[in-house]
Amino acid sequence: MKLLTPLFPALVLGAALLSGCSDTLSEIQPAAVSQQADSKTKSSAIGAVLIDLEQAEGQFSQGNKVVLPGVAVRHYDLMSATTGQISLTPAFSGTLESMRLVLGTGSTIKLADGTILPLDTPSGTTSGLKIKLDDTPLVAGTTYLLTVDFSVERDIVSRGNGTYGLKPVLRGTLKEAQVVVIIIPPATPS
C-alpha cells in the first residue's frame, strides 16, 4: 500500500488528463468537408475546346529549351482535326522531346447547348500546357504540324460546381507538313 500512496496523485492526474483528451481531439480534428467530386465529361456535352495559345516552347534532348518560331498566336480548337493542328518551323535541327504551350487567359469551352465557359488550365498561363512527344528529330527550316492527342472524356474534368478544367499534360505527335505544289501549265495561244 505504501508503494501506491506516492503514485496515487500521479495516477489521478493522468486519468484526468486522459479523460480530457477526447474532447480536445474532437476539437482539433477537421470538420467533414462537403466536396462535390470531379467527374468525366461526356464528349456529347462539349462542342469545342478552345485554347488561347500565346507561345510555344520546345524542350530538345540536347538540353536546349527554346521558343519555337512560326507558331500562330490564336485560339486552337483541340476537338477539330483542322483548327486543332499547330504549325511550327524550328530554327535549328535537333530531337524534340516535349513542348509547352503557354496559354493566355482566354481559353474557353463551348458546351453542346452553345454556352461558353472559361476553361481552367493549371499552370497554363505560367509554365504552360505540357505536350509529351515521342522523341522527334526536327530539321531546321522544315514545317511540322503538331496534333494533340485529345479526348474530352480523358482530358477535360467537369467539376461539381459547373466549371471545367483541362488536364495539364497531354500527348501529341509531330509530322512533317506536306507541301502541295500545283503546277499550272502556261496557257497555249489560241
From TrEMBL:
Keywords, alphabetical: Signal
Domain DUF4382 stretches: 64-168
Secretion signal span: 1-21
Xref: InterPro entries: DUF4382 (IPR025491)
PROSITE patterns: PROKAR_LIPOPROTEIN
Keyword Signal: yes
Keyword Cytoplasm attached: no
UniProt-recorded name of the protein: DUF4382 domain-containing protein
Source organism: Hymenobacter rubripertinctus
